[in-house]
Design goal:
This protein is mostly helical. It folds into two domains: 123 residues, no CATH class; 62 residues. Helix content is 79%, strand content 0%. Helix 1 runs antiparallel to helix 2 and helix 3 runs antiparallel to helix 4. The chain is rod-shaped. The chain starts with 14 loop residues before the first helix and ends with a helix.
């Protein structure tokens, strides 16, 4: 049984999960940038129009400059926020995707009958409670397997004792042989 925690060096563990997460955050940031730009443009544009009804050319020119300024400002904010979001999303998804990947591997191992596996996650990974529950489940399965193996050993002993009895008929010996084969299959 290994008890040392798993060290993950690869940031992209579940690439599709992490990519969808990053794209979702980028779309959310883009949507907020767009809403912010439209809101600022709408609010300041109304003020500019109300202040000067006579200088129509100046208002159009101010609207154009304001629109470009809002676009550039929001684009720069979008890039900075997007870059920060990538790092935050990678860090957060790594703390989730890593344990999920570990559980996939552990489920496969337990499914193959390897009940000596121990679930250990890194200290700050998410899903610590699931890890503890999984470890408890594997421990119970291990105990059940040990009890089952003890019962199988008892059955094998009793079958051999019955086979040694000289007063058994051929039909009874055949049944004991079938039982012995069934018990042997249960051992594997």
């Amino acid at each position: 049984m290994s008890t040392h925690p798993i060290k993950r060096r690869n940031i992209f563990i579940k690439k599709t999960f992490q990519a969808r997460f990053i794209i979702g955050v980028f779309l959310l940031i883009f949507l907020f940038s767009l809403c912010s730009a439209l809101l600022i443009y709408w609010i300041t544009g109304g003020d500019l129009q109300a202040q000067s009804q006579t200088a129509h050319v100046n208002i159009i020119n101010a609207w154009q400059r304001l629109g470009v300024s809002i676009f550039i400002g929001n684009f720069v904010a979008f890039i900075i926020a997007g870059a920060l979001a990538v790092f935050v999303v990678l860090y957060a998804s790594h703390k989730i995707a890593g344990p999920l990947y570990r559980f996939e591997v552990l489920c496969e191992q337990v499914g193959n009958g390897q009940l000596d596996t121990i679930t250990t996650l890194r200290e700050k990974d998410q899903l610590q409670e699931l890890s503890q529950a999984f470890t408890a489940m594997v421990g119970k399965l291990r105990d059940q397997r040990a009890a089952q193996q003890a019962n199988i050993a008892k059955l094998s002993t009793h079958i051999e004792q019955l086979r040694a009895d000289k007063s058994l008929s051929q039909d009874q010996l055949n049944v004991l042989t079938e039982l012995a084969l069934t018990v042997k299959q249960l051992q594997h």
